[in-house]
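Thread amino acids onto this structure.
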């Protein structure tokens, strides 16, 4: 019975401790909740309210517009006036659209113009004129046909100056069409009319050969090598197209055969000739263009020297042509100027001087005319000899 009482007392005590612990936890939770509410009450609360209010704002003061004036372009004699405010930079204009040659609408006319241009480049002016006449019958006002006609007549004017007027007329027709009708050909025709048609005779005295320089390369082991430098000189302001100028160099060789020296034109296929413009662009800067001509003679075989003689460089002739007409010429040695070049023959109808054995003193060499007679030859040995009287008609 005593043990039962003790057990009941222990259970009672444990129950009290559990109830006390639960009460303590509840008090602790209540304290934490109260502390949080107090902290939240301390945070200020902000309330937004919209209030409508009319406010008058003064307008900004207006500025007077800048005065617009025309300013003359600056020049060395008239400098630009100083301005208080810098002008805005000018807006660059777009690049001009390049003009092109107008298209040929008729394919037949286009073919005829192409064939005429090919014939002109090949030097067949007769065929070019025939093609262009047929093209003009189909399209008389086409600028391509007119301009090509002017080019053909300009080329032919080098041999017949009277054709220069027909070339100018063709260029004038192209110029009359304007840029809308002729396109890029308008500017080309205008330049032709402005500069005029250059004739070979106009360049005499303005285009000439300078002093030709000759260099013999004695150290060449591959045969004989000679370099000839030809200066072509032009007067200031002279404009020459490269396709209108031709320089021709004819070389001559000396041969030893049977102990006799002979001068002959350079044999074709035996020697080699090279042409080279060495002064850069063909613009006659400084008034001169240099042409370098190299003459190469390979070593000859013994059999060839025995049959045809030993050949070596002797000299050359230099000729400058403008549009096919000879303008100037030089020869070294000088007597080579009277010799025909390679491929040329001495004309058979060259005038010859009569020798004494060809002259007949009886007058039968000249045709007789009624009433005419030849006087007898006077004796010119005595100084006081009388001269025969003149025949009466």
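Threaded sequence (393 positions):
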């Amino acid at each position: 019975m005593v043990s039962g009482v003790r057990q009941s007392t222990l259970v009672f005590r444990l129950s009290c401790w559990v109830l006390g612990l639960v009460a303590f936890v509840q008090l602790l939770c209540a304290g934490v909740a109260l502390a949080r509410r107090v902290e939240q009450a301390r945070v200020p609360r902000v309330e937004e309210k919209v209030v409508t209010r009319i406010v008058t704002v003064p307008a900004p003061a207006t500025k007077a517009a800048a005065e617009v004036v025309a300013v003359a372009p600056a020049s060395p004699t008239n400098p630009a006036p100083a301005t208080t405010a810098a002008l805005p930079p000018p807006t660059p204009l777009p690049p001009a659209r390049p003009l092109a040659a107008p298209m040929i609408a008729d394919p037949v006319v286009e073919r005829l113009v192409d064939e005429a241009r090919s014939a002109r480049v090949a030097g067949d002016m007769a065929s070019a004129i025939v093609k262009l006449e047929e093209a003009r019958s189909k399209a008389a006002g086409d600028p391509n046909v007119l301009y090509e006609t002017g080019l053909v007549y300009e080329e032919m004017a080098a041999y017949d100056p009277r054709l220069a007027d027909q070339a100018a007329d063709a260029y004038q027709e192209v110029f009359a069409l304007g840029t809308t009708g002729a396109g890029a050909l308008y500017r080309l025709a205008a330049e032709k009319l402005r500069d005029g048609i250059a004739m070979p005779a106009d360049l005499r005295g303005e285009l000439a050969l300078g002093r030709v320089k000759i260099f013999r390369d004695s150290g060449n082991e591959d045969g004989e090598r000679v370099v000839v430098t030809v200066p072509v000189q032009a007067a200031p302001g002279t404009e020459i197209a490269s396709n209108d100028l031709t320089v021709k160099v004819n070389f001559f060789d000396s041969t030893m055969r049977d102990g006799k020296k002979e001068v002959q034109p350079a044999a074709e296929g035996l020697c080699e000739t090279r042409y080279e413009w060495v002064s850069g662009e063909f613009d006659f800067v400084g008034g001169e263009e240099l042409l370098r001509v190299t003459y190469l003679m390979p070593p000859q075989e013994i059999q060839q020297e025995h049959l045809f003689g030993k050949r070596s460089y002797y000299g050359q002739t230099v000729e400058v042509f403008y549009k096919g007409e000879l303008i100037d010429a030089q020869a070294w040695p000088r007597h080579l100027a009277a010799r025909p070049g390679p491929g040329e023959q001495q004309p058979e109808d060259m005038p010859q001087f009569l020798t004494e054995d060809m002259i007949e003193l009886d007058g039968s060499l000249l045709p007789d005319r009624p009433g005419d007679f030849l006087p007898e030859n006077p004796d010119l040995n005595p100084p006081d000899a009388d001269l025969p009287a003149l025949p009466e008609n």
